[in-house]
Amino acid sequence: MIAPFNTDEKPYLILETQLIRSLHITALIEPLLPLPTLLIIGAGHIAVSLVQVGKIAGFQVNY
Predict the structure, then answer these.
(1) Given its phi and psi angles, is residue 58 left (phi above 0), alpha (psi -120 to 50 degrees) or beta?
(2) pLDDT tens digits, 42-53
(3) Dihedral of alpha carbons 52, 53, 54, 57, sign
């Protein structure tokens, strides 16, 4: 996501990395990345707590 420093311009999305490198002086660049995935295999007694901690830590939890 590109947020230009010029307040007259609206934020926008861009995918081309070459163009992003040239924008670092004129805009704030914030990458939009997918959540990291935590895959829990097994149904042990610790799995319930591990799912809760994973969600709090910002993981996409698959079990």
Answers:
(1) left
(2) 778 888 888 899
(3) positive
